[in-house]
Amino acid sequence: MVLDTPIDQVFDYCWEVGEAASEPVPGQFVLVPFGPREVMGLIVAVSDTSDLPTEKLKSALAIRDQVHPVADAWIALCRFAAEYYQRPLGEVALPGVPKNLRTAKLVALNRALKKIADGFSNQDATPFGMPALNRAQEDAVEAIDAARAYAPMLLYGVTGSGKTEVYLQAAARLLARTPDAQILILVPEINLTPQLESNVRARFPGLHVATLHSGLAEGERMLSWLAAHHGHARIVLGTRLAVLASLPRLALIIIDEEHDPSYKQQEGLRYSARDLAVWRARQLDIPIVLGSATPSLESWLHAQSRRYRRLELRERAVPDAVLPTVRLINMERDRPIEGLTSTLMTALRLRLERREQSLLFLNRRGYAPVLHCDSCGWLSNCLRCSAFMVLHRPEHCLRCHHCSLELRIPRACPTCGNVDLQPMGRGTQRVEEGLQRLFPEARILRIDADSTRRKGTAQAAFDSVHRGEVDILIGTQMVAKGHDFKNLTLVGILNPDTALFSHDYRASERLFAQLMQVSGRAGRAGQKEGGSASEVWIQTRYPQHPLYGALMAHDYDRFADDLLTERQQAGLPPFVYQALLRAEARELQTALDFLQAAAGAIDHPGITINDPIPMTMTRVANVDRAQLLLESPSRPALQAFLRGWMPLLRAMRTRARWSLEVDPVDI
Ligand code: ADP
Ligand code: ZN
Ligand code: ZN
């Protein structure tokens, strides 16, 4: 039996045969005593004997036989994830199961089970209101429909090319052919689930559709999980955590915006939902569709080497809708006022006159990234991190985005007493304020993590944009993804340059994807009579940069091929495989010492172990952090090394806290 604990072992419990109606079988959830508590465990094997002496064996308390046992394939998936990411099986399998299911009293559980067997007969999988597909969409749907075994497909389609329609019609064909099949659709962002959910529900009014994401209340999450697990839910939509849902009749997996960084879990079990989904598809021998306008270089390489089949949608789906014209504004010549160049202001004014919507993209929330004293040079450093505290004017505070420390805005400079402290730089709140001054008649809405902190506010904000109650939308990456705004003809990108010179080798891949995504929000409904052609204006100091050139040409193919060549020459992923050991401690030296000892703990032919170094942002919340990067051209070699290394690390005595990440993305 496995339990949700960091101890990497399988625990033995006994069960008296004939004690109750049911006998334990692998895959069942069981209530057991663990220390002073009662916890839910998962049976992974049943045996007549145990290595423990009988008097040491504790009895299991109750088998939850109301819940079907999970399938062997699901345990195998968890076991693979546990081994690949070097975590205990219990820590993989159990956290994926909703908390309520693990703690629920029997009455609550029975009530939930009754509820999910409610409601939907699932008799009628007839789709409703299917638009005619265009040629390219038709070909893509045909290809997905024809795949009857493991077949990874990269659906490479420009923004607005109707990828969603391909997913829905491929789903419809599968459900028509296999009525009890289950389909898993992953989206990168919670805020995209309502839009897709309503599309799916409208399309399949007779089907049980369940959603799984971290925004659900525990009760709802349990219902969705059980509906998926008992096979009632035919279509399951969710964010990355849904990849670990138990789906006994899973027959098709779809990953929308497969390149998106949020498919990577960044704490605990640091898994890639995309990679696990592909593994799962291969294990179940079913097709998987990875959709994107800017595929990850990993998937791009697979498509180039024909391990993935490439399906292409080169044009926008709505008749007359074309990709927006992308233009650059040289900020050295056209100096911005309130963050906006005169060119962009003119473009905004035109949209206001024509009652069209505009979107301004600035990936920096808050009012200003730092507060500054002109006379002595004081800066608003965080007291606990190697980072600046961000000025949040509407909330009247300085806030650290890394440790959440919050301080009142000082009236005067803490070092010299100067009362004239100045914000430096510009975040979304400051742009919003400037817009209100420049365009007092416009209806302006800001959408970022601050404006949508309360539950339901994000959805309400997006709804008001869709209803046309907003003229100018200003936002962070939250507004860049997936949303199908119908009346938006202008996108302004305020300050993307910083990412051009990042030390992170993935920064330009990400920046390109992000700018392509946000540009793709413009002109989705086609040009109206007397309306504007769709435009994207990028404000930059580096108009010659090749990344912008590729963006203007909408040429991801070349950009991706060039990046791959660079990566190959530099010996970077996806041509090498990496693992990152992180350590943190009160003293940087403690962390570095641990990493140094870890590096010397074992022989490592075929593995490059780099020197331990402090992380770029060394201090967070009074803890210093360092890292050790391992690389190998062979994934199996790296895996074999890690298997031998982990027990040695676990046995090492250190005051540093450490964690290992396989296939790290932020290094
Ligand atoms: P993507 O996900 O590729 O960015 P969407 O799936 O959001 O694009 O589709 C963009 C728009 O095109 C949507 O408004 C959708 O309703 C519309 N659309 C998709 N397929 C068709 C089609 N075959 N005919 C007409 N409109 C379509
Ligand atoms: Zn000062
Ligand atoms: Zn801090």
UniProtKB/TrEMBL annotation:
InterPro entries (UniProt xref): DEAD/DEAH_box_helicase_dom, Helicase_ATP-bd, Helicase_C-like, P-loop_NTPase, PriA, PriA_3primeBD, PriA_3primeBD_sf, PriA_C
Q: Please, which domain of life does this record's source organism belong to?
A: Bacteria
Q: Which cofactor does it need?
A: Zn(2+)
Query: Entry's PROSITE patterns?
Result: HELICASE_ATP_BIND_1
Provide this UniProt record's keywords sorted from A to Z: ATP-binding, DNA replication, DNA-binding, Helicase, Hydrolase, Isomerase, Metal-binding, Nucleotide-binding, Primosome, Zinc
Q: Does the keyword ATP-binding apply?
A: yes
Could you tell me what reaction this enzyme catalyses?
ATP + H2O = ADP + phosphate + H(+); Couples ATP hydrolysis with the unwinding of duplex DNA by translocating in the 3'-5' direction
The record ties this protein, via Pfam families, to:
DEAD, Helicase_C, PriA_3primeBD, PriA_C
Q: Where is the Helicase ATP-binding domain?
A: 144-313
The UniProt entry's GO biological process terms, in alphabetical order, are: DNA recombination; DNA replication initiation; DNA replication, synthesis of primer; double-strand break repair
Q: What class of enzyme is it?
A: isomerase
Recall the GO molecular function terms of this protein's record. 3'-5' DNA helicase activity; ATP binding; DNA binding; hydrolase activity; zinc ion binding
Residues reported in the UniProt entry to bind Zn(2+) 2: C382, C385, C400, C403
- What does the record say about how the cofactor binds? Binds 2 zinc ions per subunit.
Q: Which EC number(s) does the record attach to this protein?
A: 5.6.2.4
Instruction: Tell me the NCBIfam families matching this sequence.
Output: priA, PRK05580.1-4
**Free-text function comment from the UniProt entry:** Initiates the restart of stalled replication forks, which reloads the replicative helicase on sites other than the origin of replication. Recognizes and binds to abandoned replication forks and remodels them to uncover a helicase loading site. Promotes assembly of the primosome at these replication forks.
Family, per the entry? Belongs to the helicase family. PriA subfamily.
Q: What is this protein called?
A: Replication restart protein PriA
* Source species of the chain: Noviherbaspirillum pedocola
Q: Which gene encodes it?
A: priA
